[in-house]
Amino acid sequence: MKPRIAIFSLTGCEGCSLAILELEDQLLDLLGAVDIVNFREGMTDRAWDIDIGFVDGAVSTPEDEKEVRHFREHCKVLVAIGSCACLGGINTLKHYQGATGPKGRGAIGENGSDAYRRYVYGDKAEWFPTTEARPISAVVKVDYELPGCPMVKEEFLAFVTSLLAGRTFKLPDFAVCVECKKRGTLCLYEKGILCLGPVTRAGCNAICPAFGSKCEGCRGIVSKEALVAAGINLREQYNVELQEVLDDLRLYGAYQEADLP
Amino acid sequence: MLDRMLTHPELLELVNELALQRRIVGPVARDGRYFYEEVTRATDLDLTFNYCVYSPRGALFPPQETLFVFKRTNGTFTAEPVIDVRPTALVGVHPCDIHAIRLLDHVFEQDQRDEHYLSRRAHTMIVGIDCQRPCTEGVFCADMETNAADKGFDVMLYPLSDPGATEPLYGVVYGTSIGRDWVLYGRRGRIPTATDERTFEQYQRHKTDAFPRMLRMKADELPALLDRSYDSLLWEATARRCYSCGSCNLSCPTCYCFNILDETDLSGTTGRRERTWDGCHLREFAEVAGGHNFRPKAGSRLRHRIYRKAKWIRQRTGLPGCVGCARCDRACTAKINSVEIYNQLAEEV
């Protein structure tokens, strides 16, 4: 019997769900290998007997929290896809708006009417309860994570293939620099651009630097060790304020441990 | 002794003729730097390049390649090797990279012959171009005795005219009959005169003075220096800056380590075995089944690379494991510098 797959969305742009639909050349092969039984972005049917559930989006509202627990209950394997689900993603930027807290984080109450919420929803802010934005692993047990903004669709395919074949799946444990070197991309540091490649997990085929745009760390920090090195190098070799680096890392990684030395 | 003299236009004509028979890979200007890329016309090459950011090793040992494809049908398993036999010419290879290719040749010939590399190599012609002066700051090829090459090429070009001359003139030395046939059957150039030979002698004399010595020791003293430096505090102290990003490995012309991965399609009936570049600075490089890592710390990985480059490879093969191109030093965003490492170690002991 083919494994039954579901694709769910929490708070996010659903771009990762869309990335699955963008696997145009492989979509028929994929449907030959699995049954998709629940996919808001792609179909109307809703079934709840699920082998592998993929979730994009962050847990950012009380409703998200309820939903993700429900997903967990009905999925044998739960997979976080994309930066929001894996890292909290850009949703976590809201923690840094308005009020100041520890490390400049704005305090977010259960149903608090915070500055960012008033900015977005105006006088209707009270209608939209919100919590601290978190990766789904902060709420439920997650079996696998496929980070990236959006997730790398080729990696999604490789993941499904591995799981079907009964092989273990592992994210690359090396930095984006490896992929820049393999592609023959000129290092952005040579152009005086402080790229986050050296501290960011590879697997995206270094697509941003290949098109001249610095790595923004959407796949998460590759290792604590690299982050420590970044703190030392940027201060000692590049004369950069650590706050600047933290601001950069925060775009996707505000929820990650980002304690630079 | 020179074998032939070629003007720049004559060389371009020869390369254009070569392009009819071979895929041409040579220095191309991009992003204000030079890269080895495939070209279809000689005029796309810039043979006045200072250095290429990455070495030409990718043309012989690609960053990613399929070794074989496999198929399972009705319970039978078949595998088909993938061997690259495209005729190729690497045009514009500096002596350091020629030395590096000689090391790769040696490594992939040893013991288990690597037919994937060796086939590509056998179908590749190398047109070297000598360096009259260091290509950029920080290189230490003269220390490594790799700033000139007397073998490892099919043809070597010596740029004998002054830089900026309206018509560059190359002195040509043949390395193989393939190189000689290319120049001679092309019916280009002329026989060198006594004046050309004198110019060539002056060129060589000038070259000796043009390359600074960066190391405080000779290359053949490095193994002994490293022998004494295993427990140096330098490794950890330097590696605190190391990201373990592997940029040094991956831009090194002599790094030949690789990883092997099997990939299958969704149905699991067809697949391929892929080989991809690896590097000893990457955290998982020395991790084995069961999870033990022989070099879990960046300091031990840095020491390992330096030992490979300056001691072990030299001792095992008699060839330089490091050709002094300094690509590792330039690639390191943490600015870890191998010349500084050698010189600091020399001060310590």
What would your notes on this structure say?
The complex is a heterodimer of chains A (261) and B (349). Chain A is of the alpha/beta class. Chain A folds into 3 domains: 118 residues, Rossmann fold; 37 residues, no CATH class; 78 residues, no CATH class. Chain A contains 10 helices and 5 strands. Chain A is globular. About 5% of the residues of chain A have low confidence. Chain B has 349 residues and is of the alpha/beta class. Chain B has 2 domains: 189 residues, no CATH class; 130 residues, no CATH class. Chain B is built from 12 helices and 11 strands. The longest helix of chain B is centred in the last third of the chain and has 20 residues. The two termini of chain B are 43 Å apart. The chains are: A alpha/beta (261), B alpha/beta (349). The interface between A and B is large, with 38 and 37 residues.
